[in-house]
């Protein structure tokens, strides 16, 4: 069914056009010595030998356009969430505003021009943790936009499971939401592209809950796509939504289905992996192949790339929201392209796969990849403008309501610090909302950093009359999960263990630093390793050392109280009391502590002392 759907699209894609485009820059993965000449020759052969209606030459270039971690960002992301960093040859850097599906559509459609063979793929988290315009409608607007973008295939990501496996199946197949129904005047037809979930299986049957792979085929060119999410997905989503599911090892799963594809005569394989890495520089055009292939990148994707079958020709990755186009050697020592296009539709990757019709495989030495900025200086795609207008009109009565005022930007997602000003603000809101005895009696509040999805931006946007207004829609974008708040009993010893779990165990390589409420302070010594990074003697509440034997009432969202993000100590809490949603307590705090005449100022972010 997927292959038939693709063939229907192929004819339409040849007609796709877009207005002029401005190129800001690209990062090209390193190509082995001598490959440039081979690439040029292969390209010339393919273009010179092709005649419509006749057989092509031995090799043909296939364009692979890819992106990842869109998270329902249909409108241009605000603040630092909507910027990418460009590094110039002299070492200076420049911030470029990027993203927005109206611009992404224009860039992709322009990039496809003159490409007989073009595939568009993604590496998960297309939906989930989305701004209000999409999240309010269970991300149906984003799927509608992706259909219009002519996305061919994507892997699932962890956020595809935010509302559970049953809802993900509805997203794929269509139909109205079982509780909220369809939005007024709309019908939901489902995704016109396959979601791939090769390593997500039903515990009872052992079978994948969605298609494990997809074969793209056109005029004898066949390329297989295998899609997986990170094996650790259960640690970062609500347990209730994934009951009965098993998340398998990425390498084992991809290698298994690579063999299955090969038995079907498909020897060209691309892995769509919702797991990623961390380049040494945040600049999208940083050369992560310096001084040698893959030397400038670290993280889980490196080990995955080094162990995947050499039969896999390229890796499109995501999850870490970073930008890179590297060549990491496969187990046979052969260079292999590994890419990621940051997040929120700010970049797209253009990869050339030279397909050999005789061997049915990719000529690996000619693979080249580049990340391109989705600049906002191009014409908007009118169909996307219409789509955004339609859904904004439906969301407007809720989205535009003012809920607070701020005196300056309060950075959350855009902050690179362990302690984020917006994290402190959210933790304070949760403490205040759950401090009353009948609400939970909270003394401390913890907030997971990954749950902070945006910044609060001071500049006016949308229908705001002045700078500094925070609308319901903006607050929702910061806290889109509607997690219910909980208050539990934890001993001082359990709290200290949780602090140590921020920087040890599954979080040692990539620390997840909890945001803490006012009055809670401690020192984090990053010159040490593992649990020793937490200075236990420095942990205090309202100036007094935390007593390991004493019981404290701790507020946190249900994701954390379930042990999410690698915090099993927090799941040991007793006497749980469930309160309002995280969004409700956040909005209540903004309303109670700010006004047009007295806006909130950014917290000082001075509760965690960090030694580096």
UniProtKB/TrEMBL annotation:
It comes from the Bacteria. Residues 403-571 form the 5'-Nucleotidase C-terminal domain. Transmembrane segments: none annotated. SUPFAM superfamilies: 5'-nucleotidase (syn. UDP-sugar hydrolase), C-terminal domain, Metallo-dependent phosphatases. Residues 67-322 form the Calcineurin-like phosphoesterase domain. Keywords: Hydrolase, Nucleotide-binding, Signal. Gene3D superfamilies: 3.60.21.10, 5'-Nucleotidase, C-terminal domain. Residues 1-35 form the signal peptide. Belongs to the 5'-nucleotidase family. This is Bifunctional metallophosphatase/5'-nucleotidase. The lineage of its organism: Bacteria, Bacillati, Actinomycetota, Actinomycetes, Kitasatosporales.
